[in-house]
Amino acid sequence: MKRTSRDIRRANRNELLRYVIAQSPVSRQELAAATGLSLATVANLVGELLERGVLVEVGFEDSDGGRPRGLVAMKADGGALIGVDVAETYIHVELFDLALRLLARAEEPLSASVNRPEQVVGHIASGVRTVLADAGVDAGLVFGVGVSMPGQVEREGGLSVFAPNWNWHEVPLRELLAEQLQFPIYLDNPLMACTVAELWFGAARGCDDVVVVNLGTGVGAGIAVAGSLYRGASNTAGEWGHTTLVLDGRACHCGAMGCVEAYVGSLGIINTLREVDPDSALLHADQTAAIDALAEALAKGEAAAVETVKRTARYLGVAVGNLVNLLNPQVIVLSSWVAARLGDALLTGMREAVAEHALPRPLEHTRIMLCPIATNPVSLGAATFALEGALAPSRS
Predict the structure, then answer these.
(1) What residue ranges define each of the domains in the chain, with the CATH number in brackets?
(2) Could you tell me the maximum CA-CA distance found in the chain, to the nearest angstrom?
(3) Shortest CA distance to 201 belongs to which of 340, 22, 334?
(4) For residues 177 and 125, is the Cβ–Cβ distance under 8 A?
(5) Exposure string over 185-203, b if 16+ CB within 10 A, otherwise e
(6) Paired sense of beta strands 90-97 and 80-86, if any
(7) For the purposes of burial, counting CB atoms within 10 Å of the CB of 298, is it exposed (0-12), middle (13-18) or buried (19 or more)?
(8) Is 151 exposed, middle or buried (0-12, 13-18, 19+ CB in 10 A)?
(9) Which of 158, 160, 238 is nearest to 193 (CA)?
(10) CA triplet 212, 155, 5: central angle to 5 degrees?
């Protein structure tokens, strides 16, 4: 894809912001050295961000006998950002200041009977109002709301194109949200959101080639190439969960058979548990409760749980081995709630299976790890989309 001057400027600005957020306060000279941008480009970008009220001058540092260097930092109290993680079983809303520091969070449950568009929109709006009230933040300070939706999303049109677990098709989500929320709304999907979070704040900082494996009810792989998100032609790159793992295997929500998601998504793991022990007491009707019970039983060493996670890790390892061979990434991060619940046991077994199925040379250069971000990575990534969107020049 040809990059325009607008794309390059946005990428440069994001790189600069990532560094300022991590290292504040910093000088323009330090920013130029750290980002590889020219001092003139850095000065131009810093000037723009100072004018927008995103950065602030915070004093000077000595410069080995030369003129003191001016320092800049994020103007944390200059605004607020909201990130929303909409999953099949919950809506998680987080409020951040401009330095992406968490101010408040709220969560609202979803279920199989509460997933119509108007219901989901109502829960999102309720969560946004809750975090603003809890933090005592004036709505006028909000730069925007980033909303991560499961499935396929059209960012520009604000559409939920296809959410297979809810059977949504072409839902005008941004339009529906705008009826209840008077903020700019930036729509994307969790693969993009969690990958941005890792690039800005997590295991992928400083890396160019990255894969973030999102393990929840849905499954996918967020991809960054040369330090930037790889979106594909229609913003649907990363649907690795709907690649075939087992020929003529289990039915998947997408309509195909044998998909990765049908084996390593939460419902797939529950089906594996059912195969291991059809009468298991861990087989709760609610998938979140079932995975929680599985994790607790795993910690106690219960045989059915150990075998279920062992099989799941093997399925996951084969599929991740394909990613290693195909993309040759520097780091693969396991993210989202299923990975967090099953933790090191899943990671260890998966690494063993990857070693059996990936080619030695690409695997030698790939780190595989759990997401290190303490807060919700999808909400954090969605909030960065709101920051990027607020700083983007008008297309008019």
Answers:
(1) 49-78 (no CATH), 79-193+377-391 (3.30.420.40), 206-370 (3.30.420.40)
(2) 76
(3) 22
(4) yes
(5) bbbbbbbbbbbbbbbbbbb
(6) antiparallel
(7) buried
(8) buried
(9) 238
(10) 85
| Residue 326, token pair as written in the block | 């195909």
Which token pair is 388?
A: 């990027």
Q: What is the SS3 assignment for 17?
A: helix
Per-residue model confidence as pLDDT tens digits over 118-148 = 999 999 999 999 999 999 999 999 999 999 9
- Partners of 251 in the beta sheet? 257
What is the rounded CA–CA span in Å between residue 125 and residue 93?
A: 10
Per residue in 291-347, pLDDT (tens digit) is: 999 999 999 999 999 999 999 999 999 999 999 999 999 999 999 999 999 999 999
What is the token pair recorded at 4?
A: 């325009």
With beta carbons less than 8 A apart as the criterion, state whether 135 and 104 touch.
yes
Percentage of the residues of the chain whose pLDDT score is greater than 70 = 97
